[in-house]
Amino acid sequence: MSKSAKLELGEKTIELDIIEGTEGERALDISKLRAETGFITYDNGLGNTGACLSNITFIDGEKGILKHRGYTIENLCEKSSFLEVSYLVVNGKLPSTSELEEFTAAIQKGSKIPEGVKTIIKSFPKDAHPMGITSAAMVALSGFYPEYLNQDLSDQQKKEIIPLMLGQLKTIAAAVYRHGQGKDLIEPNNNLDYVSDFLYMMTGNEPNKEVAKALDVLLILHADHEQNCSASTVRVVGSSKANLFASISSGIDALWGPLHGGANQAVLEMLSEIQKDGGGYEKFIEKAKDKEDPFRLMGFGHRVYKNFDPRAKVIKAYCDVVLDKLNVEDPLLDIAKGLEKTALSDEYFAKRKLFPNVDFYSGIIYKALGIPTNMFTVMFALGRQPGWIAQWKEMIEADGMRITRPRQIYQGKTDEKL
Length: 418
Ligand code: ACO
Description:
Elements: E1 4-9, E2 12-20, E3 26-28, H1 33-37, E4 57-60, E5 65-68, E6 71-72, H2 73-79, H3 82-91, H4 97-109, H5 115-123, H6 130-144, H7 155-180, H8 194-203, H9 209-221, H10 229-238, H11 244-256, H12 263-276, H13 281-289, H14 310-325, H15 331-344, H16 347-351, H17 358-368, H18 376-397
Antiparallel strand pairs: 1-2, 2-3, 4-5, 5-6
The structure holds acetyl coenzyme *A.
């Protein structure tokens, strides 16, 4: 196939280079379009726009494939731990035994949060949303680790700050939870693995192995998802050479929204609403189909996956095991199962290729694990942090990195006078 395409614009014909990805995706390079023709492109929601070249994550939304650095998500969930996957996503290769030990030790060393950050967390109202507190605590770290604020971090500084971020967010997330419960914060326990330590700092108890394993898989499933809303936010903020704390804090903010990471909280809230209404989910399915009604089935649909979400497939299998092992009986889970079954066989959802996404099931597992609803999106952030760091690192290390600055098509008034 030709490596360029011709674009006719009136009298003018220009050649656009075709860029091919390693998994066969193709893109038209329009970077010189405006200079050569005066035209820009318009792409509402950027669904057809490749904003970067990347080696981190590959998604085939039609086939339901998700790979990190060439490994499928199914393979990683079966054979790896969250810290191994974090190392892989950030550094481009799986760690050796000694590299994993060194990485783990650095995360443990970086797990104690500054007293000032604890004070900031405690200064929030108890019922403040945990995502707001987490974001504020993250950006507050910039004041306590000024050595990492220079714009061009050395390789050694990157090696230090990455495990530091993973350690700090684990403790911040647990502290935010304790604060919301009106309880004293708990210091990290370096004898525990990452997930067990997080659960220990949340609850004061060491979790059983099954619960820790289930959460570890959930964090792996969220580790990265290429140029989604929050990762793109991290890249946009980082492209101004803002520091990593500010960039990740912005990613947390983008994740908070109910159309993105906040969907896992919204799923449980929707299930509770259905329960309060008497449990009849059919009425809510009809509401979701009604174009006059803004209601959407939370946890259904995805911008990229148009047949199934591979993460949802892994987690659904896990969900059944966890509920069985924990012996959980919950009427909300029955509503979830009924809703899922009925929506999947409904023509409206089938025609639009709307399937349950990862958030539909993650909320159910978090609930079974005893994690409160308003902490769900913080759990997502904890899982997603390696992806954000990897996207930021790849961007700042790329040749010819430029500040992100899209254009617009002005449609406002012209020539107004006072
Ligand atoms: N319930 C009912 N209808 C829906 C839903 C839904 N959850 N999602 C999409 N649709 C409909 C739209 O109304 C539209 O119908 P139309 O063609 O008749 O106008 C069609 O399906 C296509 O929808 P879009 O909005 O174009 O899809 P888009 O790719 O822009 O949005 C999104 C994807 C935001 C995920 C959407 O499906 C949604 O709002 N889902 C619910 C929220 C959710 O679960 N978000 C989590 C995403 S996964 C993640 O962040 C990890």
